Every structure is written in C-alpha cells, then in structure tokens.
TrEMBL record:
Keyword set includes Transmembrane helix: no
CDD domains, alphabetized: EFh_PEF_peflin
Alphabetized UniProt keyword annotations: Calcium, Cytoplasm, Cytoplasmic vesicle, Endoplasmic reticulum, Membrane, Metal-binding, Repeat
Residue segments, region Disordered: 1-22
Domain EF-hand: 22-57, 89-124
InterPro entries, alphabetized: EF-hand-dom_pair, EF_Hand_1_Ca_BS, EF_hand_dom, Peflin/Sorcin_CaBP
UniProt protein name: Peflin
GO cellular component, one term: ER to Golgi transport vesicle membrane
Cleaved signal peptide residues: none
Organism, scientific name: Aptenodytes patagonicus (King penguin)
Pfam families, alphabetized: EF-hand_6 (PF13405), EF-hand_7 (PF13499)
Membrane topology, as annotated: Peripheral membrane protein
C-alpha cells in the first residue's frame, strides 16, 4: 500500500478515454483521481493526499515538494500527466530499494537497516550521522525508524549534496575548502 496512491478510487480506467502517448494507462488513471480540482495538473497538496507510507501516514510536504520540483519541467509548482507518470516510476524504484533495505519487512527502516543501506549505496557514513538522521526524520518512539517518504527525502538530499561536494573535491581526497558563500550556494542550488 505504501509508495503509491491510496486504494479505492485510484484504480479503474481513466475518465475520458485512453492515456496520452507515452503515459502508462494506470498512471493516467491515477492522475485523473489525484487531480482533485480537475486543473490538468497535480499540486504538492494533491500529491500529498495521494501518497501514503506503510503506517497510512501521508507523505510529508518536504518530500512531495522535492519530487514535484524534480518533475516540474516548467518550474510552475505542479506537474502534468507526463511528469506524474515519471514521478510514479521514480517512487516505484525507491519503494523497491526501500523494501530491499527493510530486512525485517516492518514497513520502516530502523537504525541498523539505515546503516546497511548507506553502506550498500556506497556511502561511508558514521553511526553518529545515521543517528542524527533518525533524530531529525523519524517519528518519535522508543524504536525510531524511517518511513518511505523520509527515506526518499534523505536519499535525494544525500545524493544531491554528495554530487555538489564531488564537484569541489576535484582530487577525490574527501575534503574540500569552501568559503561560507560557496557553501550557501551549494545548499541553495541543490536543496531549495
């Protein structure tokens, strides 16, 4: 159930006929159901209402905004059916990866699973850094864990900042020297 539009009305045939060329019919059907205001576009708010985690919580605003921005080719703050279809493929890929790292099939990623995920993705990160991420992104509980939406958000941000770091680390030594403004520029252009 997690990683895709909620069950119920998000199945069936797309109202009004066939899917546009290059768009999966199921994605077109979901698009019609998610486009609550019938504008022909999906907003962050509409996307948030359509995507759920394994615990039935809706995806968080930050992740929805990151994904909308990724597939919004016109920089308008919303996506059309083509962007939505690409976004669903993107979520499906992350969901598969998430399930691979969710070794106990609990529907969330624990501290140990997060550490293993980072290692298998090629990141050499300390347990302290993983603990920091859990403190920042996990729901408050005695056994904090990461839901799919936060996993996608963390991985997207980690990938983006790593790419920015590698651009500056031309000698591949693992250290860079940055001015404060260079650092801010990296953050603003990659994260906002």
């Amino acid at each position: 159930p997690y990683g895709g539009p909620q069950p119920g009305p998000y199945g069936g045939a797309a109202p009004g006929g066939d899917a546009p060329p290059g768009v999966d019919p199921e994605a077109a059907s979901w698009f019609q159901a998610v486009d609550a205001d019938r504008s022909g576009y999906i907003s962050v708010k509409e996307l948030k209402q359509a995507l759920v985690n394994s615990n039935w919580s809706t995806f968080n605003d930050e992740t929805c905004l990151l994904m909308i921005n990724m597939f919004d080719k016109t920089r308008s703050g919303h996506i059309d059916v083509y962007g939505f279809s690409a976004l669903l493929r993107f979520i499906h890929q992350w969901k598969n990866l998430f399930q691979q790292y969710d070794r106990d099939q609990s529907g969330s990623i624990s501290f140990n699973e997060l550490q293993q995920a980072f290692s298998q993705m090629g990141y050499n990160l300390s347990p302290q850094f993983s603990q920091l991420l859990l403190a920042r992104y996990a729901q408050r509980s005695s056994n904090p864990s990461i839901q799919l939406d936060r996993f996608i958000q963390i991985c997207m941000q980690l990938q983006s900042t790593t790419d920015a770091f590698r651009e500056k680390d031309t000698g591949l030594v693992g250290n860079v020297r940055l001015s404060y403004e260079d650092f801010l520029t990296m953050v603003v252009t990659r994260m906002m």
